[in-house]
Amino acid sequence: MNILIAGIPENTKNYERALSRCQVSYCTSLCPDSLSSYDKILLPGGGDMDPFWFGQEDQGSNPADRELDNAQFALLHAFFLTGRPILGICRGMQLLNVYFGGDLIQDLPTSDAHRYQDLDQIHPAQCKESSLLSRLYGPACLVNSAHHQGCGRIGTDLLVTQTAPDRVVEALEHRTRPNILGVQWHPERTGLLPGKEGLADGDALIRYFAEQL
After folding, report:
1. pTM recorded for the entire structure
2. Catalytic: 186?
3. Active site residue: 90, 127, 141, 151, which one?
């Protein structure tokens, strides 16, 4: 088992630690030597993507890194075409939504409830019945947030399977490809937060992804 983290090594240490806890091998790169060496891809969190990708002018996005956008979309496309598992986290889930034809809300009206403020925000989330998220965490749990954008129009064949109280999308699952999943929250670092009853165990989601075929 070998997972490609499609990111910049200095920005992905928490993802690497999470995969190590699950005893999964990985490599962090935006230009790997051979994609055939990897069984699945993890699209990590990070900054805002260029609104060009979803047909909008800048309406509150932070400055984008077009080269990063290009590289991640190309890798996502390659793994999708070959049927390999894909996990998108935070920005990574937003990339998934845009890849499948959706768009983003560039600055959420309720962004203060989700934005990183010295620590991740922690808030409730409802899981759709019979979804993967409900199987892992039950009908409701607490999740951690560190973002100011969110999914707007949902991409083709994606289902919203978890939402925050303000209806911000917290998880997307693919209708026909159960090995494609996105979460807006950060499972790779829930274990780094002060203990709070009901907080989703992020490692459970990471382990699920690691076991996907």
Report:
1. 0.96
2. yes
3. 90
